[in-house]
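Weekly puzzle thread! Below is a chain. First person to post its structure in token form gets bragging rights.
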Amino acid sequence: MNDLSQSAILIVDDTEANLDILVETLTCVTDDISVVMDGPSALDIVREFPPDLILLDIMMPGMDGYEVCRQLKADPALQDIPVIFITAMSEIENKTRGFELGAMDYITKPFNVVEVRARVKTHLSLQMARKELARQNEILEIKVEERTRELALTQEVTIECMASLAEYRDPETGGHIQRTKNYVRILATRLKDHPKFKDAITPEIINLLYLSAPLHDIGKVGVPDHILLKPGKLTDEEFEEMKKHTIYDYNSLKVAADKLGDRSFLHIAMEIALAHQEKWDGSGYPQGLKGHAIPLAGRLMAVADVYDALISKRVYKPPFPHQRAVDIVLQGKGTHFDPDIVEAFLDIQEDFRQIALQFIDFEEERVALSEPYREYA
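Winning reply:
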């Protein structure tokens, strides 16, 4: 049986004789018994020291038991405390009113000691069970939150590990992963309230974009070194081979996503992998998609990827100044890039520059990025 000895009971009655009988009856159940003789005092003590059970007289001068009960049940912090009404009345309508106000039970005067003790024990046991259930639910919620955080961390670590494969093949782009995922996040955040994007860009999507962006170039592990690391311009044949990195990337992610199921966190990464080299006018690769047929994730990544390639040092070029990179992105508005995304990029171009400076690879890039900044109309 549940140990009720630590339970707290409040008895509210304006008659001392009734209080004496009830205290004597319930002392064998618990020593924690408080008594008050009016409604306002009852409310004060309950708010300061909430009991596990209230025995409440109905007929009291001034504030009656019904009003006390009504105020208790109107307070979210107190409404779960069970109330047992004490009454000498036997009319059905009075009992009905009490139940409608939220009372759990009735005991009638004159008191039957055995009945009072049994009813109090029953409701204290129920209250203990409710509290234990609430405690277990809290523990379960904490465990679910912990597990969710573990899964999120696992996803992020998995993505970072996969992305590092491409970094090992192309060591000049060590900061590229960190920069591009932050570019994509601020672009998406800027566009989330835009009429054209507000339904497509949710906080969950923004987070998935941020996590998935590092995977946009892992397909380069399938490109031969003599092409990937070539210091000069690629031949047509070499460029065709380089273009296959989008397919390699998509296919490798699809294998993993198929194993994880329809709700895989990799679906955004797959869109980015396959679509980040597509162009707004349809001249991109690998599918030659045009306009809004290009997944939004790919359109966002295209701007982030090109800006970062421009401001970065490569084996085939020096880093471009920030302003020149912005000019080139602007020139691609409506041809290479989604015009609305370019407008968002122009609005937050200084944020792009600051991200680039934060995750810089070479001092040459810092110098190029430190040119004076000017606003775009």
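Puzzle host: Confirmed. Bonus trivia for everyone else. The first strand starts at residue 8 and ends at 12.
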